[in-house]
Amino acid sequence: MLVRQVRLSNRAKQQLARLKGKTGIQNWNVLCRWALCLSLADPTPPPDVDIVLDSNVEMSWYVFGGEYHELYTALLIQRCLDEGLEVTPANISKLLRVHLHRGIAYLSTTNFISSIEDLLSLVASGGQESQHEQVG
């Protein structure tokens, strides 16, 4: 197992709390999975910034990924390879951290997500609405 714990910044926690209210999704891990996948779908690398993991939101990798934790691990390994990074626990953890936080920002900083239906529409569109609104 390359990742043991998933932690969030206070800003990400606040963003997720607003998303929970808009979507009705009550579990942090479910929203975090959506955010991670949305960010991984964007071929550009996220900004290489230090993220202070200062919130009290923490979950094990198995809680984060649920029954599909191995799939999320494989996605992160593939992203490492795509970006020419050595597959190490440190690189996987860093990719998880920056992609998770970028995905949470994508979901919360657009006005696109106001209900669970909007989140489902995002899947149907391949994530294009959120990313285009972020740029535009």
Question: Your description of this structure?
Answer:
With 136 residues, this protein is mainly alpha-helical. It has one domain: DNA sulphur modification protein DndE (Arc Repressor Mutant). Helix content is 62%, strand content 4%. The chain has seven helices and two strands; from the N terminus they run E-H-H-E-H-H-H-H-H. It has helices at 10-23, 28-41, 61-65, 69-82, 89-109, 116-124, 128-135, and strands spanning 5-7, 58-60. The protein has a two-stranded antiparallel sheet with strand order 1-2. Helix 1 packs across helix 5 (89-109) and helix 2 (28-41) crosses helix 5 (89-109). The radius of gyration is 14 Å and the shape is globular.
Structural class: mainly alpha
- CATH class type: Mainly Alpha
The total domain count is: 1
> Biggest β-sheet, characterized?
2 strands, antiparallel
Helix content: 55-70%
Number of helices: 7
Q: Largest beta sheet: what is the strand line-up?
A: 1-2
- Can you name the CATH architecture? Orthogonal Bundle
CATH topology label: Arc Repressor Mutant
- Mean pLDDT over all positions: 87
Radius of gyration: 14 Å
How far is the first residue's CA from the last residue's CA?
A: 38 Å
What is the percentage of strand-forming residues? under 5%
Order of helices and strands: EHHEHHHHH
CATH homologous group name: DNA sulphur modification protein DndE
Low-confidence stretches: 129-136
